[in-house]
TrEMBL record:
It comes from the Bacteria. GO terms for molecular function: hydrolase activity, acting on carbon-nitrogen (but not peptide) bonds, in linear amides. Pfam families: FmdA_AmdA. This is Acetamidase. InterPro entries: FmdA_AmdA. Gene3D superfamilies: Acetamidase/Formamidase-like domains.
Amino acid sequence: MGCVTDTVEMQEQMVHVPASVENTLWGVLPIGKDQPIASVASGQTVVIDTISHEGIMPDQGADPVRYFGAKGIRRDEILDDTIAVPEYKTHREGDGSHIITGPIAVRGAKPGDVLMVSVDCLERRTHYGVISTRHGRGVMVGSQWEGDYGALCKVVESDGTEYGQMVPDGVDFHDDAALAASGYPRFALHPFLGIMGVAPDLPERPCSIPPYRFGGNIDVNDMTEGSVLFLPVQVDDAKFYVGDPHFAQGDGEVALTALEAPLRATLTLTVIPRRIANELFGECSVPFAYARGKLLVLGLDKDLDEALRHSVRRAIEMLASMFHLPERVIYLYLSAAADFDVSQAVDLVSGVHARIPLDDFVARLPGGAGGFLNRIARAMRSANG
């Protein structure tokens, strides 16, 4: 895997943010009063390193060299920043698990604006990751499948496709033939960041576990390369952050974690002024996204049924505003053509996201799905004269 930049000028404009001890928070999200660790202009590209929390948590020994070493992984296969976090930071009981890189100031962003996050590239930083269930927080709590256990996964390649191969206990992690012969499943990788968000205007840093109206742990697995996330800005300069990297996740994330593993993310951050955002999308009070020709509309609530209702309600309002159609027409359309999927049901606040094919609105959106980002670009050019 690797990112390709079009020109030397683009490479020179990029800002690289390492996941150093100084640049990260453990278990909490940045807030408005936090000082940014980097600053970019609207439209600038930033390269951000992320760390997975698996293997460093206190209940795992807070020693990734020992934790992964017991699974057959050598010291030289473990990232230095992964080792440094539990060595120099203390995880407070009651905080979340995630390592957060940020905040990054996007100069000129104001509350009410929308931050457009284009996911340009996601590169693996390791060739392994971990899936786990513990803390009584999978959806099967109270059943025989509840417990504290997990599985190491190795990245393997076949016919040009990368897979996560589950590693049985007792099988040599480096023996590909033994792994293939084990009969344990493998699954295609689709890397994405579970956490992307902007800082809220709050007095205390919030827990990193639940998703919020300003982003955070939304865990929508469509947010792979080529996708775009839209976040309602809460404070000056947005103060963007990322975390919770995955190599793969199924809708629902039912056991508790997915394939958790570190990524290097190349993202372009663009501020859409409030007036333009409202004209394009209607009032933007919660995150939404675009991926592979579909509009993704999020609903969040502690109650999964209510999260679904939030997603439907926001989808009706947004599509009616975007395409100047009656809300009742949109409600019926959603029932026939849109999918509403569980993003995750294990992060204290459940998430549901609609997948709406924008080609269905080609009569009102020139170019259909392909015209969605073009409409935004035209509006921005017009606003800039």
